[in-house]
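Duplicate of #3305? Posting structure anyway:
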């Protein structure tokens, strides 16, 4: 479903010069699988996910999403994905219902289909109580649920979620995590990023530890435990990241 080969992204910044945001990463993610990116701030998670979502162009490398190339077939890729990121814009003056109707239409769904999917999604994400409240009056958690609803209204086979639980209270975070698990059970391919070890540990079928744009390791949790002799993900993460720091001194 998602195949990435030797992806590199370089930014040129007037003050900072050449920034290797992503350096030569490769991975794949199948149907019914959650692939997690675990990394600190600035590690390159958002850059990678934005490339998958066709918002940024790669500097080099090959990226296929649902069989389509992200640069040459960007339109097909966009139809195949639901993208959730911190910057997903919502319109302040719309209610959740209006927001979802709007994005459903943009995605070419029939009115009846939108209504049907909207009521299912609102039910599962516990959104019914605020479906008629304007976006500018919603809490962070409510907005995040709406952003998720918006990202999945067209029932895409691939979900790309950039730190979906950041800033959420524990209950809302749990609703979101449980929903992501349900997507996996329904055969979706999910790419998910986080800087929280326990979240990656609980949720991901495969985990890539990304640091300064490079994969320090990737594999299933048992693979990582075996290869890097750690009790849990946190221990493995710190081991890998501190080795990297020593190398660069
Ligand atoms: N548009 C941009 N222009 C220049 N540098 C960028 C841009 N976007 C991201 N970066 C840099 O790329 C690196 C990776 O950032 P990012 O992918 O946002 O990391 P993460 O999401 O893991 O926190 C950082 O050093 C960041 O400052
Ligand atoms: Mg980020």
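Output from current build:
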């Amino acid at each position: 479903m998602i195949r990435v080969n030797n992806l590199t992204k370089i930014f040129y910044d007037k003050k900072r010069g050449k920034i290797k945001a992503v350096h030569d990463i490769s991975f794949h993610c199948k149907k019914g699988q959650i692939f997690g990116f675990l990394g600190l701030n600035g590690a390159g998670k958002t850059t990678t996910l934005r490339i998958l979502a066709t918002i940024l162009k790669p500097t080099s490398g090959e990226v296929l999403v649902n069989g389509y190339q992200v640069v040459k077939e960007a339109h097909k890729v966009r139809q195949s994905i639901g993208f959730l990121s911190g910057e997903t814009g919502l319109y302040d003056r719309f209610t959740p219902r209006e927001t979802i109707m709007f994005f459903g239409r943009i995605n070419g769904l029939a009115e009846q289909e939108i209504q049907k999917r909207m009521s299912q999604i609102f039910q599962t994400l516990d959104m019914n109580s605020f479906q008629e409240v304007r976006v500018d009056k919603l809490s962070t958690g409510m907005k995040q649920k709406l952003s998720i609803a918006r990202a999945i209204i067209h029932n895409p086979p691939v979900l790309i979620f950039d730190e979906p639980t950041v800033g959420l209270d524990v209950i809302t975070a749990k609703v979101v995590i449980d929903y992501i698990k349900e997507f996996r059970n329904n055969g979706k391919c999910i790419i998910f990023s986080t800087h929280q070890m326990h979240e990656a540990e609980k949720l991901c079928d495969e985990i890539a530890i990304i640091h300064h744009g490079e994969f320090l390791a990737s594999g299933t949790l048992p693979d990582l435990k075996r290869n890097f002799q750690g009790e849990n993900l946190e221990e493995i993460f710190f081991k890998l990241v501190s080795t990297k720091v020593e190398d660069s001194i």
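Confirmed duplicate; merging threads. The CA atoms of residues 53 and 177 lie 21 Å apart. The radius of gyration is 18 Å.
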